[in-house]
Design a protein that fits this description.
This protein has 22 helices and 2 strands. It has about 450 residues and is mostly helical. The chain has 2 domains: about 60 residues, no CATH class; about 300 residues, ADP-ribosylation/Crystallin J1 (ADP-ribosylglycohydrolase fold), CATH 1.10.4080. A two-stranded antiparallel ribbon has the order 1-2. A hairpin with an 8-residue loop joins strand 1 and strand 2. GO terms for molecular function: metal ion binding. Keywords: Magnesium, Metal-binding.
């Protein structure tokens, strides 16, 4: 079995990158790994083509521990503790904390954005464009299709294997199962059970009780393994987990904002509690930012207002703050291609699941899309990188702002109001999820 995001030899290659980003001197460890026959280049898809022999795998485990023991550079501008984080933040914006129920638009928009990006997840930007041009769909303005796709283009840029059978225009029948929707549904149940005072341990218990191990990835898979190994929080986020600043925690945060309309700081605090199970530093800030985007989208009128409000929960001198600001600044570029070129120049060295490049895309798509659903999610997808996750977050924000009617039937009709899930209970109705979310928000308002 080719197990992704878990084999020590694959983790080590990613940890060399992550440790270097944290200011550790990894040169000696890298030299030992290469001298022993190890590959220092991280696998794009989570696992190298061949498993390591036992001796090399054992060495990888040893070197992972040695990297963890190396001192990291001081990073006072990127704290992990909540009190230090809160002290670094500006005052939260004064937003209304009640308003019309926007949860149906938010859930629908998240699902539609995710669905748009599913078949091209992991395909680079140039491949996405070639597929669209070959099928007469450039620029992107509807779901992908394989109709008319030449065999050589399909071979050069194969669809996401798991998603293609359920996420092309010709085979969509409701929102198919996806981790970008599993996590919001899981968060909804967590909040219904524990309320806003849930602890990180409650999140861990919810994972173990409800999430199949095969449906968690990157940092979540590492944290899941650490939970089964009885490691405590926050060690669950760091032990043999080179994905701790990737996008996983960001995709889990929308519901935490939807139940906190206008309260971006409160939403960020909930996201921090959730994210610290599996992430550190910018991985955590990404979750806080996404929760704040969702909270602001419940009460603001424009995408720019949402972005302004959400920046108040990101440590201002962090790398995530710089990525978000950069994405927003690029919205003034003459055209989308020029903006995406600059994003890739700045962040093209990062793995496609990292939080920084994808946060920059989300900020760019929201600012450039001007509050229109189709253009916003299409930008997020044609940017490449984590296409379904970025478009899901963008879709949730714009869906909340525009409502289901503003999203448009081109995007909503194929969903048929349904979301499949690998969680207990099976398929969910979007209207039911929205009603449960609104009830939690109302409970907060009435408290």
């Amino acid at each position: 079995m080719r197990l992704t995001w878990a084999q020590p030899e694959d983790l080590l290659a990613h940890e060399l990158v992550q440790s270097a980003a944290e200011g550790r001197d990894v040169a000696a460890v890298r030299e030992r790994w290469v001298a022993a026959g190890g590959d220092p280049v991280p696998a794009v898809s989570g696992a190298g083509p061949h498993p390591a022999p036992p001796a090399l795998r054992s060495l990888a485990r040893t070197l992972l521990d040695e990297l963890a023991a190396l001192p990291a550079a001081p990073a006072p501008e990127e704290p992990d503790d909540w009190d230090a984080l809160a002290a670094s933040l500006p005052a939260p914006p004064d937003l209304p904390m009640t308003g019309a129920d926007r949860t149906l638009g938010a859930w629908t928009g998240r699902a539609a954005g995710c669905l748009l990006g599913k078949p091209v997840e992991k395909i680079p930007r140039e491949g996405i464009e070639e597929i669209l041009r070959a099928t007469g769909r450039w620029p992107l303005d509807r779901y992908f299709t394989a109709a008319g796709l030449p065999a050589d283009v399909a071979a050069r840029w194969p669809w996401n294997r798991r998603s293609a059978a359920t996420s092309l225009e010709e085979n969509i029948a409701g929102m198919p199962e996806d981790d970008d929707l599993n996590y919001p549904i899981l968060a909804l149940g967590l909040l219904e059970r524990h309320g806003r005072n849930f602890r990180t341990g409650d999140v861990a218990e919810a994972w173990l009780d409800n999430l199949p191990a095969g449906r968690v990835f990157t940092a979540e898979r590492a944290a899941y393994r650490n939970l089964l190994d009885a490691r405590p929080v926050p060690e669950t986020a760091t032990h043999h987990n080179p994905f701790r600043e990737w996008i996983g925690a960001l995709i889990r945060a929308d519901v935490l904002g939807w139940i906190s309309p206008g309260d971006v700081r409160g939403a960020a605090r909930l996201a921090w509690t959730d994210a610290r199970l599996s992430h550190t530093r910018n991985g955590v800030y990404g979750a806080m930012w996404a929760a704040a985007l969702a909270a602001a989208a419940m009460v603001c009128d424009t995408a720019d207002e949402v972005l302004d409000a959400a920046e108040a929960v990101v440590p201002p001198h962090s790398r995530l703050a710089r990525a978000v600001r950069f994405g927003r600044e690029l919205a003034a570029e003459a055209d989308v291609r020029a903006g995406l070129d600059r994003l890739h120049e700045a962040y093209g060295h990062l793995h496609w699941v990292h939080v920084l490049n994808n946060a920059a895309v989300i900020a760019y798509a929201l600012a450039r899309g001007g509050g229109e659903f189709g253009p916003s999610v299409s930008i997020a997808v044609t940017a490449g990188w984590d296409t379904d996750s970025a478009a899901a977050t963008v879709g949730g924000v714009v869906g909340a702002l525009r409502g289901v009617d503003g999203i448009g039937r081109r995007w909503t009709a194929p969903l048929d109001g349904r979301i499949a899930t690998s969680l207990p209970g099976g398929e969910q109705r979007i209207a039911d999820l929205a009603a449960r979310t609104a009830a939690l928000a109302a409970r907060r308002e009435g408290s």
